[in-house]
Amino acid sequence: MSLAVEVAGLVKYYGKVRVLDGIDLEIPSGTVMGLLGPNGAGKTTTVRIVTTLLRPSSGTVRVAGVDVLKEPARARTRLGLSGQYAAVDANLSGFENLRMVARLYGMTPKRATDRADELLSALGLEHAAGRRAGTYSGGMARRLDLAGALVCRPPVVVLDEPTTGLDPRGRLDMWRVIGELVDDGTTVLLTTQYLEEADLLADRITVIDRGRVIARGSADELKTSIGGDKLTVTLATGQDPTPALQVLSGIGIGEPGVDADQITIVVGDGTRTMVEALRRLDDAGVCVVDAEVHRPSLDDVFLSLTGKPGERKKPEPAPAELQEEILS
């Protein structure tokens, strides 16, 4: 499979602070790469470098076969960027915003008009085409911003926390749009503060912390890497746990843990093992009042890898030293 984005040995200093410390990324064409990490991990710095907005201290970046550092102008024709905040002109209508972007890309007036209409329809904004963008809801403004990133039909789209601040309905709408982009063959680099979003959308996930890649793989691979499913059995109050411990020790992995009337053990195949465990516990005369299987989530992965819970805070701020070192 061809690679749409190739990042190798990416290093970035702000003064004496090493913000990125050898980041490597490979994103196959037509897939979604989720880039996760705690605040200050370097996600936004990486995105700015990939999208030609910032020059790295060292390393290489190729987007759709174009060297970003050597040919930034050419690379921009292959990139679409929707940042953390909707970059739309509040005084222009939705249609006028998109038509302006299309004209800036060099489209003829007619082609710019047609493309604006196409995108407004595709992103469900045709009903608000003539309204000032300043009157749009947060979700509508984010969709308009994404439409602007798609004007030139780029093969690679970078979405930097595209659903931050949206209500549940707006997030669902954005997820639908991202899914349709990938179905059409677009490659997406996605940073997000919502771990369930990465779980749902990303084909592969790269976790970075303190400027370094600390894990990569599919969501399932990352979950498996920190241990199997956990089976928790709740016994009737006051019951001797010894028979249950003997049964579960023969089914699970390692030694079971006991907390009051609950016994927890790691198992290989949660649902199937739970059925077998309940059968054996019944045969052994153990009274079980409840049983559940907990599969590791990306929150568990994130906590295990970084020592921090998944992000629920505002987007990572740009370092004070950042002066938008845009490539020319």
Write a concise synopsis of the structure shown:
Keywords: Antibiotic resistance, ATP-binding, Cell membrane, Membrane, Nucleotide-binding, Translocase, Transport. The protein has about 325 residues and is α/β, with parallel strands linked by helices.
Describe this protein with a few key phrases.
Alpha-Beta Plaits, 328 residues, ABC_transporter-like_CS, alpha/beta, Rossmann fold, cell membrane, four-stranded antiparallel beta sheet, membrane, 11 helices, ATP-binding cassette domain-containing protein, single chain, translocase
End-to-end distance? 31 Å
Task: Give the rounded overall mean pLDDT.
Answer: 86
Instruction: Fill in the CATH topology of the largest domain.
Output: Rossmann fold
- The rounded Rg comes to 24 Å
Number of domains: 2
Oligomer state of the chains in this structure: single chain
Order of helices and strands: EEEHEEHEHHHEHEHEEHEHEEHEH
Estimate what percentage of residues fall within beta strands: 25-35%
Based on helices, strands and strand pairing, what is the structural class? alpha/beta
Provide a count of the helices. Answer: 11
Strand order of the largest sheet: 6-7-8-3-9-10
- The CATH homologous superfamily of the largest domain: P-loop containing nucleotide triphosphate hydrolases
CATH C-level category of the largest domain: Alpha Beta
What is the CATH architecture descriptor of the largest domain?
Answer: 3-Layer(aba) Sandwich
- Major sheet description: 6 strands, mixed
List the uncertain runs: 311-326
The geometry reads as elongated
Number of strands: 14
Helix content, binned percent: 25-40%
Subcellular location: Cell membrane
Membrane topology: Peripheral membrane protein
Family: Belongs to the ABC transporter superfamily. Drug exporter-1 (DrugE1) (TC 3.A.1.105) family.
Keywords: Antibiotic resistance, ATP-binding, Cell membrane, Membrane, Nucleotide-binding, Translocase, Transport
